[in-house]
Structures are given as C-alpha cells and as structure tokens.
Specification:
The structure is a homodimer. By secondary structure, the first copy, chain A, is α/β, with parallel strands linked by helices. Helices cover 47% and strands 15% of the residues of chain A. Chain A contains 14 helices and 12 strands. Chain A is elongated and about 85 Å long. The first copy, chain A, starts with a helix and ends in an 11-residue tail after the last strand. Chains A and B meet through helix 1, helix 5, helix 6, strand 2 and helix 7 of A and helix 5, helix 6, strand 2, helix 7 and helix 12 of B. Chain A binds a DNA duplex through helix 3 and helix 5.
DNA sequence: TTGAAAGCGCTACCAG
DNA sequence: CTGGTAGCGCTTTCAA
C-alpha cells in the first residue's frame, strides 16, 4: 500500500499533509478549505486562485477531511446546531426537522444534530448538557412541560436558542418561531359554529405551555362571540393519562349530546379517533371533529378529517434564519408568529342535526 | 459577579481551573472525571478516594463540563455513535432509535446522534462523511438502495459499523443485526394458506436489498410447499412510484379475484390500505392482508390488521452490543438473526369464500 | 498515588 | 497574497 493509500484508509490526512504535498503553508490550506464559494464562483479568501485550485486538487486526491474536533477546539465553534423536538416520530417534527436541516446546510453550512426529549424535562436537561459539552453553536428546541429551567441554563451559557412550536412565558433572550395559536383555536371553533353546531367542546393538555392555553383562549373567545359560553367546556388531560381519560370523556360527551370536539394536537386527535372507532361512533354524525397537525391517520380514517396545520416549511426555515442571525451577528432573538391553515374534510361536512 | 459565577456562565471552566481550585494536577482531575463507577461504588482509577471526592466536589461546584472537542482531538475518540435509519419518522425506526440510545448510554456511556438518510444513497454518503469528520466511534446504519459504496468507505476507514434491519450481500467487516426475513415471508404466506386461501400475491420493492428478496423467497417457498406456485405472483414497485403503481395493482388484482396480499413493509401496507379505502374495498372479504412492522394506522383502520413485527428492543440492544464489542475490543462484527413475531388481526379472520 | 510535559489538528494572529 | 507560530483543553506517557 502506498503512503497515500495508507493515510486515506486511516483518515489521517491532515492539513499539514496537504500543505506539504501542495508546497504551501498550512495557513493557506486552512484558508482554502474554509473559503465559501461566492455567487460568481470565485473563492471568498485572500488566496491566489491558482494556488487555491492546486490546494483543492491535492486535498481531494489525498482524501482530506477536516478534523472537526480540532477546528472546534481552536475556534470555540462547531458549525453545528441541535434540533430538539419532543417526539421525533411525530410527522410534524419529522417534517420540520428536514426543513431545518436543509436550510441550515444550504444557507449556513451548518451540520444539524437531532435528539428527542420525549416530553421529558429531565431528558431535555441531559440533552442540553450534551449540547453544551459539544460546542454546539445554537439550538432549536420545542419546550416540554417543566423545561424552563433547562432552557434558561442554555441562555445563561450564551448559547443562541430558538423556541419552536411552543412558547414559554417570561423567558428572555431567545428567538421564537410560533404559530398564532389564538387564531387556530378561534378558527376551529368558528368553523364548527358556522356549521350550526352549538355544543362544541375541547380536550386539552394541562402542560403549562402557552400554545395550549392560547388555543383554549381562541376557542373560548369564538364561543363567547357566538353567545355559547354556557355550552363551552374544556376537558383537561395529560400525556400520561390521555389513554384512559379520553374514552371516558368521549363516551360521556356522546351521552350528554355534545356535537363536536376541537382537538388541539395530533396525539389527542389520534386518541379520540381510536376511541370513536372502538365505540362505533361515527364522525361527523356522532361527533364533528376539528383536529390538529398532519398525520397518515387523518387520511386513512373512514371519514376524512378537518384539521389545522402549521406551515411546516416556513416554520423550519424561519427558525433557522432567526437562529442564524443570533449566531452570526450576535443579534437578540426575534419573535415570528405564523398563521395556521385549515384543511377541510368530511368530519365537519353534511352534519345531520340530532 | 464572582469569578466562579463568571466562569460558570461562559461555560469556560476547564480542567485546569478545577485542578487549581482543588490543589491537584490536571492529570488527577482527568483521571477522576473519566473514572467509571465500579459495582461496589468505588472509582476505577488510581487516585486516593479522598482526593477523588474533593475533585468531584470542586468540579460540581464550578460547574465543570468536559470539552469534548479537546478530548476527542487528543484521544481520537468521541464516545459518540451515530444511528442512521432510512426514515426517522417511521415508528419502527423511532422505537429502535430510542432503545439504542438508552442502551448505549447506560451500558457504554456513549452519546447517540441521529441522522436520517431518507432512502437516498447520496444523502447517506454525505452523512457518513460527516460521521467521519466528527471522530464518531461507531455507526449503526439501515442501508438503502445503492448505499453499498458509502458503507464500504466507512469500513475502509476502520469505523466499526453495524447493519440493522437490512442486509447488504457480500460486504465484509461489518456487524449485522437482522430479522429472519425468509421466515417472515414464509410465516405470512403460511398463515394465509392455512385460512384456505389460494390466490395469495405479494407486492415488494425492487431495491436490491436482501431483506426484501428473502421475504419474497420465504413467501415463494410456502406457496410452493402448498402446491400453489402457479398462483404465486410478486409485484414490484419502488419508493418513488408506489403511490401510482399500487392503486393499479390492487384494482387489477380485485378484478382478477386475488384473495390476499402479503405486504412486506410498513409503507407498502399503508399505501395498500389507503387504496382499499379509496375504492371501498374491505378486508378481509375483498382482500385478506398480512402487513409488516407497527403503525398507528393498523389500529385505526376499520378492521384490525394482521402484521409481522420485528422485536424492536432486542434488535436495538443487540445492535449496540455488537457495535460495543467492535469498538471496545476491536472484535470483528458478528451477525445476529432474530425471529419475527406475528400479531393476528381481523384482516385474516372469518374470511368469506368468494 | 501524584504530577510534568508533549502534543492531537486546527485557526487566528501577526509579520512579511 | 503567503507563511510562521501560539495555543485551544484534553489525554497520555513517563517519571517521581
């Protein structure tokens, strides 16, 4: 095996090897390897284009790969951001993660790491410690219940942070990219009211996360404007107990003649749909439904389901932009609020009056 | 702000600060911070227990966090493994990823990173380059079509690698944790045959991935043993074209009087179920179904669905064990084959003969 | 049981 | 445009 081959195999080609082979200094190689391509194709660094080309050729030939540990140690940066959703298997987060990754790579040359908090504040804390130890340049996180402290620590450490999907009240120094949750709740109730329904209820999580309280407020406001405050009712459950609470809530509601439910998140929607199927209840006749987020399930359910969606791509890209500004320009985090979109389905159409 | 507070905020507490504060050398601190807890509670390092305790106390008080970039640069290791599924939003991979992460943390003290290849060999290649640059100690990867080259590069770089869920034929020097795919295909066909069905067909991906060809072989073998070779038929599709191919295959099959389908993966199953719903076909009377992997969808479909599952926890943990041995003991990768499990549902029960 | 010192590969500063 | 060099924080000999 030649020396070249040996170095390639062990991935031990350093900047120094490239420099020697190309007959230049390590400084030049570093410049070239870190130069960004300018729109006109030229390299954004003070190096003779010919020299640069030679360096690039040699680097490619030797199979040079930057040792990011060394670069990170020296520069204190890692060109890496972390994305921390609450549940990576959720379509909403899976989609958004992909948008974030693409945008971060394309526009900022960041590598993106993922870790799921599973709605567990302790786990989120551990992840953020890891983030910290890894010189991560910035974090995009969907907070879960009780995670305010962990996120505050991030801010104290001066790590640029963007909250996505869920807000935490009274936290300073972070960027935020959120849905207009009040509007979402308002639109959901409004739609059901416009269909002539009155007994419209809601199931929500008592998580202390403002996304939920905002959706509740929007719902309540629409009910109030329609003079239906007396019929409005918000049931509360938790992630841990939803599977047992919801069947009770639903069977009881059907007995009480409730006409519709607004379900402000995917997991509640899925749970309700499952309960309805188990009990032989049909939508929209037994219960009209307005659900949230996207899911394969909505398509495969016997009746298509009306649901509100968050503008995925926009959310993800905005999050990267806000974070990028915080990292590159040391700007304070800005807040961006996006509008929800309504997808109409059979669960709110042609409802037989009881 | 005190000096202590300042250092904590900036997360700039180094091993040297701890050493000075504790009145010992940096070497001692390094020993203590890297020592593993022995079963009896003592520390596995040549340091006076009293000194060690003092060091730990000081480190905790100053909020010391190891700079992993420095550690990785010096040691050439990162205590980090990467998990690369084809699609992280898939329940199967989401579940397995969680098992891997837990096991890796608990038994090996590894941090786990995730990146999804989206069934794209080019993207997988990019990810593996990143892995390479990051001093990742080992990789657990689900290969996708055309990824053999990229994975071979990993092996050439001497990065311990374990293939999970899908095999690549003729690749040397990797660990493998796979399902007995032949058995799965055999069991699926066998079940349908035992229900008195004869016209049993299969839809598969033409991906050149042996998991699929093995499932096909198992199916064919069972059909052959039942003297049904003449009726056996395997339709082929691809990820890109499944959405248009499958409606055609299914409507045509119903016309031809096909009685059952075996669908050797989750995405094919979902697509078929959607097609059947759109066309008003019912299972099992129009078509009996044996599906694969787990999904919310199976539960919410009007009829519960018979499906084969992979033993998630076992798969994940085995993968970590195999990888761990490769990393720690420089052992060659071993191959582990696990048995599928059948979950019976309504899609294969009480079938009306046509 | 403890400590001194040599770098890991890279970036950033400074000088030419 | 080019190059010399200090040192990021840590692990790892080696010696005491």
């Amino acid at each position: 095996m030649s020396r070249e081959e040996y170095l390639m195999k062990k991935n031990k080609v350093t900047i120094r090897n490239v420099a020697e082979e190309a007959g230049v200094s390590v400084t030049l190689v570093s410049f070239v390897m870190n130069a960004k391509q300018r729109p006109d194709g030229s390299l954004d660094c003070p190096v003779n284009p010919k020299t640069a080309a030679r360096v690039k050729e040699v680097a490619a030939r030797l199979g040079y790969r930057k040792n990011v540990a060394a670069a990170s140690l020296r520069s204190g940066r890692s060109n890496t951001i972390a994305v921390i959703p609450t549940d990576i298997s959720n379509k909403f987060f899976a989609g958004i993660s992909r948008c974030i990754e693409d945008k971060a790579q394309k526009d900022y040359n960041y590598t993106t790491l993922f870790a799921s908090s599973d709605e567990d504040a302790k786990k989120l804390g551990d992840i953020l410690d890891t983030v910290n130890a890894h010189n991560i340049d910035g974090v995009i996180v969907a907070p879960c219940e009780g995670s305010k402290e962990a996120i505050q620590k991030l801010i104290d450490y001066r790590i640029p942070t963007v909250l996505i999907d869920r807000n935490i009240e009274g936290i300073e120094g972070v960027g935020k990219v959120l849905l207009d949750d009040f509007q979402a709740g308002y639109d959901a109730a409004q739609l059901l009211i416009s269909k002539g329904l009155k007994k419209i209820e809601m199931i929500s999580y008592s998580l202390g996360i403002s996304s939920f309280t905002e959706r509740e407020t929007g719902y309540s406001k629409a009910m109030e404007e329609a003079g239906l405050t007396g019929l409005a009712k918000i049931h509360n459950t938790t992630y841990a107990t939803a599977a047992t609470d919801i069947p009770q809530i639903i069977t009881d509601a059907v007995k009480r003649g409730v006409e519709a439910f607004f379900l402000p998140t995917y997991s509640l929607s899925a749970q309700v749909m499952k309960t309805m199927k188990d009990n032989g209840y049909k939508t929209p006749d037994d219960l009209a439904l307005v659900c949230f987020d996207v899911s394969d399930i909505y398509e495969l359910y016997e009746t298509s389901v009306t649901h509100l969606i968050q503008p995925l791509k926009e959310l993800g890209e905005k999050a990267v932009e806000v974070l990028g500004k915080m990292i590159e320009k040391n700007e304070p985090g800005e807040t961006v609020i996006l509008k929800p979109e309504m997808i109409l389905g059979g669960s709110t159409e042609n409802i037989k009056k009881k």
